Prior knowledge:
The structure is a single chain. The chain is of the alpha+beta class. It has three domains: 13-71; 78-189, Uridine Diphospho-n-acetylenolpyruvylglucosamine Reductase, domain 3; 193-243, no CATH class. The chain is built from six helices and 14 strands. Strands 6, 7, 8, 9, 10 and 11 form a six-stranded antiparallel sheet that branches. β9 and β10 form a beta hairpin. It is globular. Flavin-adenine dinucleotide (FAD) binds next to β4, α3 and β11. Pfam families: FAD_binding_4 (PF01565). One of its GO terms (molecular function) is oxidoreductase activity, acting on the CH-OH group of donors, oxygen as acceptor.
Amino acid sequence: xxxxxxxxxxxxxxxxxxxxxxxxxxxxxxxxxxxxxxxxxxxxxxxxxxxxxxxxxxxxxxxxxxxxxxxxxxxxxxxxxxxxxxxxxxxxxxxxxxxxxxxxxxxxxxxxxxxxxxxxxxxxxxxxxxxxxxxxxxxxxxxxxxxxxxxxxxxxxxxxxxxxxxxxxxxxxxxxxxxxxxxxxxxxxxxxxxxxxxxxxxxxxxxxxxxxxxxxxxxxxxxxxxxxxxxxxxxxxxxxxxxx
Length: 244
Ligand SMILES: Cc1cc2nc3c(=O)[nH]c(=O)nc-3n(C[C@H](O)[C@H](O)[C@H](O)COP(=O)(O)OP(=O)(O)OC[C@H]3O[C@@H](n4cnc5c(N)ncnc54)[C@H](O)[C@@H]3O)c2cc1C
């Protein structure tokens, strides 16, 4: 749930699929940048291990640790929307769903989305989430600026256009380089998609796959086990499709 974090302080934490669990010594939930800075600094000085966690949804339990963990669930504000540049600046504790709701009010949307929207923006960006769409880059490619609280250097601000090499290292950092505490994301205009669902055989998919992913903005396959049938779902820009 929004702002409620994932448990902790001697309580066990289990990931969404129930495949990984941990019992952190302590789960920190800073409410301000200053609190986060003091925490990361102290842990670094005292050699204490600290793992950032989002909503602990990852099926591989990548965020879980029996040492200390830090959740930004209390740092979840949408800080600014620049309608002209179509960019949003957000604190990583915000859920993807709530961010999309705020963007929709301003006629904007994230360019790429996963099949769920319960992730925290921090977890969503740091693992490079993606939906379908062969020509749509994964979400970390839409980040233009990040503020990262690092153990050694304190608060670091990196911009893709100013320091592309450092940015590339941090943009999909799996929480290994520090705690992302702010991100500015390039959005696109909100648009409607038209969905078509049909079935093909596995053979037909093999023959048509290259064409399908070229022709459609989004293509999704659901193979029905023990059958030869594959449910194909395509999505295309409604306004463009209407003009064909
Ligand atoms: C049912 C289901 C469907 C899914 N569908 C898709 C899909 O369609 N496409 C897709 O790409 N993924 C999908 N996922 C995976 C999901 O997008 C990722 O696991 C995502 O990381 C979960 O976000 P989270 O907030 O729970 O992050 P967590 O699992 O808590 O953390 C993920 C990683 O991010 C790091 N992290 C989190 N917050 C921060 C921060 N503030 N600073 C630095 N590092 C941080 C953690 O250390 C960890 O390495 C799905 C997951 C589920 C359970």
